[in-house]
Amino acid sequence: MLPTFVAVHETSEDPPDALLLPDEQVHLAHAVEKRRREFTTVRHCARQAMGVLGVAPASVPPGPRREPLWPVDIVGSMTHCLGYRAAAVARRHTTRTIGIDSETNQNLPDGVHDMVMNPVERRTATALTTHDPRTAWDRLFFSAKEAVYKAWYPLTHLWLDFNQCAITLGPGVFRALVTSPEAPSTAITHFHGRWGVTGDHLLTAIHVPETPREGNDAIR
């Protein structure tokens, strides 16, 4: 789902030997155990992925919006859900941004659809469910938008509502159009990503190379 020069480390468990560095640990002073395990394991995954790149394991503390703050020469993204944790990292000279997300393959709770999906997306999810009820298509739209946000925020430092991102799905791929009135004219507004179903999980991923296409269009 990502280029070969992007290092990915994933796990279905929380390794007992996963440790935090001091400037990460301070952010968990009042965290419940579930949050502590998720926070610790994804950073363990990040350091394992850094090692694949030949980069010394480094701290990844959270920023003001809980976004991961990567080492200066590294670009990355992290995700966690029930039964899955992962991190993807690349060197900054190859990659402008990465966004990955994982979700359980279960439909969204009642009452959430209108908040997450626009009318076109809702109709698409309904039609796709008729053909393939094994995939939680509404949850896939949610995951794709989460991946977009994770790729978008490091570039703009702007919040992105669900209704500011329109997703078009294809077989194993998706396109995203971002319409943020606060975004600068140079901001990337088109993202291309990939999606897949692995076991009980939905996975989405976006990779933007260091030199994207012209016209504010990011390639995967």
From TrEMBL:
Any one GO biological process: enterobactin biosynthetic process
Keywords: Magnesium, Metal-binding, Transferase
4'-phosphopantetheinyl transferase domain boundaries: 98-199
Entry keyword annotation includes NAD: no
A GO molecular function held by the record: holo-[acyl-carrier-protein] synthase activity
Cofactor: Mg(2+)
GO cellular component terms attached to this protein's record: enterobactin synthetase complex; plasma membrane
Name of this protein: 4'-phosphopantetheinyl transferase superfamily protein
Native organism: Arachnia propionica
Taxonomy of the source species: Bacteria, Bacillati, Actinomycetota, Actinomycetes, Propionibacteriales
